[in-house]
Amino acid sequence: MAKKDKKIEALVYPNENSPRLFKNKFLEFLTRSHPLVIYGMYAVLSYFSIAHYYNQHHASVGSIIGLFFLGILAWTLAEYLMHRFLYHKIEDATYDSGIQYLFHGIHHEYPNDKARLVLPVIPSLLLASVFFGIFYFIMKEYAFVFAPGFVIGYATYMSIHYMLHTVKPPRKFDFWWRFHAIHHFQQHDRAFGVSSPLWDIIFRTMPIKGRKTVNVVRKKES
Fold first, then answer.
1. CA distances for 111 relative to 124, 202, 203, angstroms
2. Are 84 and 76 in contact (CB under 8 A)?
3. Residues whose CB falls within 8 Å of the CB of residue 43, separated by 6 or more in sequence, listed in order
4. What is the model's pLDDT at position 222?
């Protein structure tokens, strides 16, 4: 006999901005960002990184393109793994406390707060630096091309995520919107991919039709 899914109650404030995280105005300012800021920052850093690699190692354009797109593919896997195992608790896919709430739960509660749809600049750069260090340790100079692909994949993911919460879906091409809405409002333990469902297909976490493990309670701030 199949095990019955346990329903989790999820509070959602669809028309409200999220509360302050810090009393200090400067620290609070640093918790908010816009995808254009993130994309512009990584576009500039990526350009100089690739130019450095090309000038120092006289690499072919073909190898640069290959490494760059391999970095993008690597990002889609990292996106899936972080969303599944870091942003949601492993045992039940909840996000109501600890690091899960700080990094992701607040987004589930206030899904349409535009200022918190992307990771802010400073934590974003810190994470990017950690990843670059890992890439450089593993692949040495190739990291100067692989890492730009990775962070551009990341910036693209953030732009897509921002679009899903701020732009109405087109009538004939709304797969992204429907897929992400299932994760938010029906099955928190499914549909972890945002930029692509590729890894949900591979790791068998595609949504199950007719299944609902989340009881969404829509509220207004008092």
1. 20, 27, 26
2. no
3. 152, 155
4. 53
Considering the entire predicted model, what is its pTM? Answer: 0.87
Residue 8 lies in a domain: no
Q: Is residue 78 part of a domain?
A: yes
Supply the range of the domain harboring residue 81: 21-218
| DSSP SS3 for 189 | coil
Is there a domain that residue 44 lies in? yes
Chain centroid to CA 115: 15
CA dist 107 and 184 (Å) reads: 10
More confident residue, 203 or 11: 203
Q: What share of the chain is helix, strand, coil (3-state, %, to 5)?
A: 60, 5, 35
Q: What is the count of structural domains for the chain? A: 1
Is residue 191 classed exposed, middle or buried when 0-12, 13-18 and 19+ CB atoms within 10 A define those classes?
A: buried
Amino acid at 74: A
Residue 113 has a pLDDT of 85
**Which has the minimum average pLDDT: 94-108, 119-133, 181-195?**
94-108
For the chain, the distance separating the N- and C-terminal CA atoms, rounded to the nearest angstrom, is: 44
